[in-house]
Fold this protein.
Amino acid sequence: MTDLAKGAAAVGQSGGPTAVINQSLVGVVEALRLGLHASGHVTRVLGMRHGVRGLIRGDFVDFTDMHQDRLDLLARTPSAALGSTRDKPDAASCDRALEACKAAGVRYFFYIGGNDSADTCRLVRERAVEMNYDLRCFHVPKTIDNDLPENDHCPGFGSAARYVAMACMADFMDNVSLPGIKINVVMGRHAGFLTAASALARRHDLAEGESTDGPQLVYVPEIPFDMDRFVADVESWYARKGRCHIAVSEGIADAKGTPIGATLIRGAQVDAHGNVQLSGSGALGDALADFLKEKLTPAGGKAPRVRADTFGYVQRCWPDPSPVDAAEARRAGHFAAMLATRGEHDGSVALVRQASGSSVWLGNAGQPYLSTFRRVPLAAVAGKTRHMPAAFLHGHNNVTRAFIEYALPLVGPLPGFERL
């Protein structure tokens, strides 16, 4: 091994937790213990409680000699075991973080999270270079929003998408039983991947355009949302079927880019990154439901039955993860540790799809799903957002077959239901 620093390794979790973020944590820990710790380059493997905040306070969990059985159980546990944070370091806090690294002898820094977490990793690395401190910094991807550039998809997305698909399956059957108009608001501030996953609730063994399963209408942030057009869409399906099932991203915005939800939430909280906290409120669903009732009530007649649910935080850590997602999250942690082992000084782990596997999930012969990882510069991911490509969008209120084939291998086997 060449060009390797000697000291402790610190690993932290940041941003919203997921059902498989602890798989990545354990992946980093066990690969470090088998590699750099076994070689003597990593003296201790430390977990930072609540991210950089814990690093500055010297609040660590020592993973160096933790039994593998306990790590395996931890990996299967949803949410961020170390505790998370949305703090964004400035120059002063980066200085304090580096002083804490020096005090603890930390030479390897691993941060598991989304684009804001990658930006934190970049800032810490750049500050370390400025201060001539040899600190190797690596970002491990995590986000249910699936919005990290350079990645085919992100650890955390498959499990959250599985939850959304199965919840919409059950909710659609409820809507068939007691017809009405049902709105489900799904997480996704700037990217619509998770809301689009609601379309996996439909029977996917049918040709595109044949299924009338719900959600019949899917609205994502990538397409400007127009309230009058929304009413017309719902009215058309309601007239056709006597019911309508709808999935809406929390981040839908009008043609000017103004988020619909943010304008409806009075006194909304804002996090350290300037993001309005949309998922803690049902304001968007309630406002859309009230708007439909007003517009679709005939003069002197009865208002249609309209209900709205906001999936909110429950979709992040539901304890039925996608097997593919769990395995890839663990492997992402392994790969990050491998980057350190081969002497890299920094980088972000990017997930690459080698074979789609879509035809297998659609019931035809084909190649099995395969994935691998590669290193990309931190700056390629830090603070940046990937959006759904046009090939995944069908008009202003639906997704294409290409998206279904993209997403199906990531969520694991889905149940089938009988219809009468």
